[in-house]
Amino acid sequence: GAMGVVIHARDVQLDREVAIKILKTDDVPDAQAHAAFLTEARAIARVRHPALVEIYHCGEYNGLPYFVMEYVDGVSLETFVRERRSCGLSLDVVTSVMQQVATGIAALHDAGTAHRDIKPSNLLIYNGLRVKVVDFGLAGLRGEAGQYEGSRAGTPDYMAPEVVEDGLGSAKQNMAADVYAMGAMAYELITGRVPFAHCSSSGVFEAQLTEAPAPPSSLRPDLPAAYDAVVFRAMSKFPEARPTALAFGERIVRARGILDPDDAGRGLRVLCVDDDPDVCTWVKHVIEGAFADANVRSVSDGLDALDLIDNYMPDLIVADIEMPRLDGIELAAVLNERPATAHIPVLIISASGGGADWAILKD
Description:
Layout: E1 4-11, E2 16-23, H1 31-45, E3 55-61, E4 64-70, E5 74-76, H2 77-83, H3 91-110, E6 113-114, E7 123-126, E8 130-133, E9 140-141, H4 161-166, H5 171-191, H6 201-210, H7 216-219, H8 225-234, H9 245-256, E10 269-273, H10 277-290, E11 295-299, H11 302-312, E12 316-320, H12 328-337, E13 346-349, H13 355-362
């Protein structure tokens, strides 16, 4: 890696194989390198989970800090995928891998830590299809500044737009970036290519900021459309619109059993998004009065709407401008950036919107 060397070794006292990570000897490590290395060790030790590599010991040898981890006899996910490139990965394999990664990262997040460099080369596959998340070199802890804060650290193909633009931020911000990376990785496992494979190396950063990748289902005909919604939700340009790591794992598992919701004869589907229940009642009355086969649902917030849209896929959305968490304009922007939902018309109703709001909506 960029900072350390990993050695396969044996613990002679406990008679077990271990992995030892030690700082490179190219240069005498300075105080910042020592602090960074200790941060990584603490990030690993802070939480125990079957999908996260476990740390046993931390120390120093000839002035070089090191820590001892469990040895995982497996291959990187990157190698695992490459070896199966000709036949591709089944959706069951993709779902299993991503669900394990998501639950491990969720445990990490619950402990106040963000990984900040989730990618196939930082995951190990062993014992058939068990997963271990490794390499916490960029991990940041809650309450600590973090040696990489404010820098554009990570891997471009999996880097969230806000990291591209502003660099790494707080632990909470980086947790949302972890979810983006998981979405990008799921995209790659499903389709066999990274989201912006058509871009040059220098163009990947710009694409992360401004482009939406092709829907996974357009690259893989056997893919249920539900996967498009799960992946694009995780890869939203808006961090607040992304699910938690745990919710992402639950959604990708649920998508495995969902058929295409765009079935014939299902009637008109309308979603009302407003924190005023009286407005939702009025919308339901008007729509169902005009269309006998209409099915009107309502939620009180933009984020709740995204949760429902992934499976409900309405024909029309009626939304208020001012709502808690994710307002109507932000909801429309999130839907417009996702190819799976860009076609859904959004009707904005408000008693308080002004010219500036309408100008944004028009664009």
